[in-house]
Write a structure and sequence with these properties.
The chain has 502 residues and is α+β, with helices and mostly antiparallel strands. It contains 13 helices and 24 strands. It has 3 domains: 158 residues, no CATH class; 104 residues, Phosphorylase Kinase, domain 1; 222 residues, Transferase(Phosphotransferase), domain 1, CATH 1.10.510.10. A hairpin with an 8-residue loop joins strand 22 and strand 23. Helix 10 packs antiparallel against helix 12. The N and C termini lie far apart (70 Å).
């Protein structure tokens, strides 16, 4: 069924192609080359429209009423259409100054688009339907209940995705786009509107590669937008890597990727919105930490473990995250953990067990010694990071804190000392009113096993999940690798039985 139709004031560029149900040539203005500016021209309302492409000279005018938006567009002969957008109690204006591309009419959701036409077309559309708005402000009656697909530049829905990729995804920046048809590519205008033009009020957090904002789409779906900083260390390769990886991963303990946006220097990930933010915002806050009882903490530990197991073994790929830490574990409305931030992740192929890099990235305090010193990473590097996370969840303390009178020992060293003295339960977070002693001791022991200095001595993630279930007897941990805090050495000293390495 041919479902393409031109906007009011437009006609098919090729009647012959259109009659053969080929709308790929799109539509053109009926009065192309003829100025209709200031001669009774006005606007026709098209209801329930998806925001057109903003790559063709669109402008966002904040705090601009619908009437003001109309006058702004009417006073500029280059303005072809405008849209009034309500956002959290305020009204913004989005105006277009060129051809209109990628237009789709929905059956239920969408916004009103006001398309500029000359006085003859305005009169004709007013006679045909009472659902249009003149430039004088005559209110419209709603359009017909049955929505039609309107394509300008793109004619048919089956061409929409292909053309959309071409316009929004730079081929030299994201060659994997066509291999992931399930991926949604968002218009920059939709992201601008959703986040209130990246309002500081909607800022959720900031990391090494950019800022994360809360947003709300036209269909009321809440999203989190990770906006890559132009001055960050993450280039297009890391961004491509993150998009390609998350698109292929589906697990209840991994953050879900909804899509992305690439326009010029702007690169953004659109992720599911998780209202409780990151785990560290609870663990290391004296007030909020009490909201995490032992049952919930143990569930979070197991959830993170299952998420890592999926990355290492159960997915179609073998993935090393390389930046596991409590700030990269997000919590949904039910406080279920979800691993996020895959910009530094790497895929292992075939029988590959480890790799090496000259560019060590990640967070000191969570890095395994072989990675921090020699740049070698493997699944056992992630397991070391998980061991840190586990001890931080149990204790409510940061690994990079100081736990000796001379401020020389971090959390790992402190836990190891208490473990050897059979005082391990002293490390438990004081905000916990009650807990299962056996579960806590098991978690501490598993954490120490994950922190063994030699990567070969650390358990696999499948073994960790099994040990946490309580169905396995645990081996005794040896002295773990740990970091002494010392200001003269960036990152600290790595302590081992063989000595110190700076």
């Amino acid at each position: 069924m041919f479902e393409c139709e031109c906007l009011p004031g437009y006609e098919p560029k090729s009647s012959n192609h259109w009659n053969r149900r080929d709308g790929s040539d799109g539509c053109v203005s009926k009065r192309i080359g003829v100025s209709n500016c200031g001669d009774g021209d006005g606007f026709v309302k098209v209801a329930r429209v998806k925001d057109p492409d903003t790559s063709k000279a669109a402008q966002l005018l904040p705090n601009t009423s619908a009437n003001e938006c109309e006058q702004v567009c009417l006073s500029n002969c280059s303005c072809t259409a405008y849209m009034s957008i309500e956002w959290e109690g305020r009204i913004d204006c989005l105006a277009w100054y060129d051809e209109l591309w990628d237009i789709l009419v929905h059956t239920e959701v969408g916004r009103d688009l006001y398309v500029r036409v000359d006085k003859m077309e305005l009169a004709e559309n007013t006679r045909k339907s009472k659902g249009f708005l003149k430039s004088r402000g005559l209110l419209a009656i709603p359009m017909a209940a049955v929505a039609l697909v309107l394509i300008i530049g793109f004619a048919c829905w089956w061409l929409k995705k292909k053309r959309k990729m071409k316009d929004f995804v730079e081929a030299d920046e994201l060659e994997d786009a066509r291999t992931h048809p399930e991926m949604q590519f968002f218009h920059l205008s939709a992201i601008i509107v959703a986040t209130g033009n990246f309002s500081p009020v909607n800022k959720l957090g900031q990391g090494g590669f950019g800022t994360v904002y809360k947003g709300q789409l036209a269909n009321d779906q809440k999203i989190a937008v990770k906006r890559l900083s132009k001055t960050s260390g993450q280039g297009i390769e890391e961004f491509k890597n993150e998009v390609a990886l998350i698109a292929r991963l589906q697990h209840r303990n991994l953050v879900k990727l909804l899509g992305c946006c690439i326009k010029g220097e702007e690169r953004m990930l659109v992720l599911e919105y998780l209202p409780n933010k990151s785990l560290d915002s609870f663990l290391f806050d004296h007030t909020r930490s009490s909201l995490l009882d032992w049952k919930k903490r143990f569930e979070i530990i197991n959830g993170v473990a299952r998420g890592i197991l999926y990355l290492h073994q159960d997915s179609r790929l073998r993935i090393i995250h390389r930046d596991l830490k409590t700030s990269n574990i997000l919590l949904d409305a039910e406080m279920n953990p979800k691993i996020s931030d895959f910009g530094m992740a790497r895929i292992f192929h075939g029988d590959q067990l480890q790799d090496k890099t000259n560019r060590v990235v990640g967070t000191y305090g969570y890095m395994s010694p072989e990675y921090a010193v020699f740049g070698r990473y493997s699944t056992k590097s992630d397991i070391f990071s998980f061991g840190i996370i586990l001890l931080e969840i149990v204790s409510g303390k940061r690994n990079n804190g100081s736990y000796q009178e001379d401020h020389s020992m971090n959390l790992i060293g402190h836990v190891w000392q208490l473990w050897r003295e059979d005082r391990a339960l002293e490390i438990v977070d004081s905000s916990l009113e009650s807990y299962h002693y056996d579960e806590v001791l098991r978690c501490i022991q598993v954490g120490l096993l994950c922190l063994q200095e030699d990567s070969e001595d650390r358990p696999t993630m499948s073994a960790v999940v099994f040990m946490l279930s309580g169905e396995a007897s645990l081996p005794s941990p040896q002295q773990p690798a740990f970091v002494f805090r010392k200001s003269s050495c960036v990152g600290g000293y790595l302590s081992s039985p063989q000595g110190f390495i700076c």
